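FAQ: What does a ligand-bound record look like?

Like this one, built around flavin-adenine dinucleotide:
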Amino acid sequence: MNFQLSEEQLLLIDGFQKFLEREVKPLARRYRDQLIPVAEMRTIQQAMTDFGVGAGVIEEEFGGMGVDAVTSGLLQFELSRMSPDIAVTSLIQNIVGKLMRYVPDQLRSSYLADVLAVNRFGCVGMSEPDAGSQVTAVRCRAVEDGDDYVINGEKLWISNGGYSDFIFLLARFNNDPVGGLGLILVERQDGYETCDIEKMGLNSQSTAQVSFQDVRVPKTNLMVPPGEAMKTLLISLSGSRPLVSLMALGVAQASLDESVSYAQDRTQFGKPIAGHQLISAKIGEMATKVEAGKLLALKALSQIDRGERSDLCAAMSKWFGTQMACEVVSEALQIHGGNGITKEYPVEYMYRAVRPFMVTEGTNEIQKLSIGRALTGIDAFG
Ligand SMILES: Cc1cc2nc3c(=O)[nH]c(=O)nc-3n(C[C@H](O)[C@H](O)[C@H](O)COP(=O)(O)OP(=O)(O)OC[C@H]3O[C@@H](n4cnc5c(N)ncnc54)[C@H](O)[C@@H]3O)c2cc1C
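The answer part, i.e. the structure of the complex:
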């Protein structure tokens, strides 16, 4: 197994880190806990396309950069280290990019150009108030009417929802629990409405409720017909789980960096707190957890790059990486003592920003159940 990054990857990451310091850091600071307006989010996402962030994963045959999964993961890690919020928006552009191949041929070229240039934001709508872990409970309905579908329903927790110009919508076309679900492209101008949700963290990007009331969409916008959509989305999501893990670990790495310098500077009992064994051991554990989480995520991504099935490793990396990341950031807060819980120090923000990653892209409980099912052949979901 090769643990060595290529010269090209090292150069890319080095250039990207400098860019992040110069362009992303000030923006993230200015908008801490406030929504970055769509125009500024678009500008920063556009600036990152040169590095292959977001829709850089779109295959070369479709005019994209064809960035490999491992490199994409390394970029998401670095970006999240600086701003997990901006990284979430990039992640959704990345997922939208991967789903572009399902956009009907006659529509694809105009969308591709806009997604590649980040002229328009997309989002992916699966979850609903009554359909979270149990995606097959989706109620949002698409009913045939002449050459159109008429859509009614609610989507919840949709990342980039408030920014979105279009949504890849998982809707119910008939009553078959799994077979009735299809994926359809809906434009903002077709009439869906969004409302941003205030969260414990990650408030600099949009997570929205999306409402459809008699929204009329041409039948030609159908991306994946009923019966195929769940499989398509599950394959695509298994590729993004290691990215979510790396994003959480990016926050953990940032909190570790802060903790190392704090422990070197802060003196108690006549020496830097790094000289107290319990603090030194915490730092040792934190660094090991970040490293182990990264390795598992990169293994899942390298399986994807080799065209292998990665579902199992992706599920392992999602729960393990996000769990480790939350533990690491919690310890970072502890190392900072009282200062840790103040707004003056960045670890307080990291503590709030890292926690949602244990829920999004399939909760950690669901990841463990998927692993258990794959190993035993017995489903314990119901
Ligand atoms: C920041 C953020 C961004 C998101 N972005 C998107 C997005 O862009 N698009 C989208 O469609 N969705 C998105 N989601 C939604 C996310 O996928 C759901 O929140 C997630 O699937 C869980 O659904 P739920 O919140 O309804 O929790 P529930 O499914 O109600 O779960 C509640 C609790 O019960 C547990 N649980 C549920 N079923 C079982 C079971 N069978 N066995 C054991 N435990 C179980 C869960 O693990 C959890 O702990 C996002 C969520 C967050 C927090």
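Follow-up question: can I read anything off the structure? Yes, for example: The CA atoms of residues 95 and 351 lie 26 Å apart.
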